[in-house]
Design a protein that fits this description.
two-stranded antiparallel ribbon, 2 strands, mainly alpha
Length: about 220
């Protein structure tokens, strides 16, 4: 019973820490148009999925997904997109982290980690394309009254774009390249820092367990007196 409580407290503490980091990184943004002018101004480079991926690798899929859900719930009241952007980020985060962490859980090695990050990257791009096609663009067109002509103008650097085929070109010229760049950046950083973060978490976990043990002993001694 005592061991179960220790594990539960440790698990929740780690999820809370990674969630806090994810929330902070959600607000640290850089418009991608400053780097690549052809991308729309509303697309931002932000690394909020980085703590969630690391948490998923350390604690498993539920831990990583919990970080994404907590981040989304806390961010929703302050949304600037009527929840559309947060919903898209939730879809991308949940499915990419689920797949990546399941792969790493099955093959918990350095090679397994690389394969897991590749799977995370691929699933990220796939679900981002799906979210843009089924959720983001249709919702923006209805809620913000975006006309098809708006997207045609946005894609004017591509020959042959019109109001009938703009969705195809947006997905393959904007959504997929942007999310491929972003997911690669996040996964590369994850690869570079994961081992250090994992060791730090283990070290802090050991100190927390020692503190928890001391507290339990003190409580039991008081009860026995």
């Amino acid at each position: 019973m005592r061991n179960l409580k220790k594990r539960s407290v440790s698990y929740m503490a780690k999820v809370a820490i990674f969630s806090a980091l994810s929330i902070v990184l959600y607000y640290v943004k850089l418009p991608v148009s400053l780097i690549i002018p052809i991308f729309p101004e509303y697309l931002d480079i932000q690394f909020s999925n980085l703590p969630a991926i690391i948490c998923g690798f350390i604690l498993g899929p539920i831990g990583g997904i919990s970080v994404v859900v907590i981040r989304t719930v806390i961010k929703l009241p302050f949304t600037g997109t009527l929840g559309v952007g947060e919903l898209a980020d939730l879809i991308i985060g949940v499915f990419s982290i689920l797949i990546g962490s399941l792969v790493y859980k099955k093959e918990h090695t350095k090679t397994g980690g690389i394969i897991a990050l590749i799977c995370t990257c691929v699933s990220w791009v796939f679900f981002a394309a799906l979210a843009n096609w089924l959720v983001v663009i249709p919702t923006y067109m209805k809620v913000y009254h975006f006309e098809a002509a708006t997207f045609v103008q946005m894609l004017s650097f591509i020959d042959g774009v019109n109001e009938q085929n703009f969705m195809f070109f947006y997905i393959f010229a904007i959504a997929i390249p942007f999310n491929l760049i972003l997911s690669l950046m996040v996964c590369i950083i994850t690869y570079l820092v994961y081992k250090r973060v994992s060791k730090l978490v283990q070290k802090l976990d050991g100190k927390a367990v020692d503190y928890y043990e001391d507290e339990l002993v003190e409580i039991e001694n008081k009860e026995n007196d």
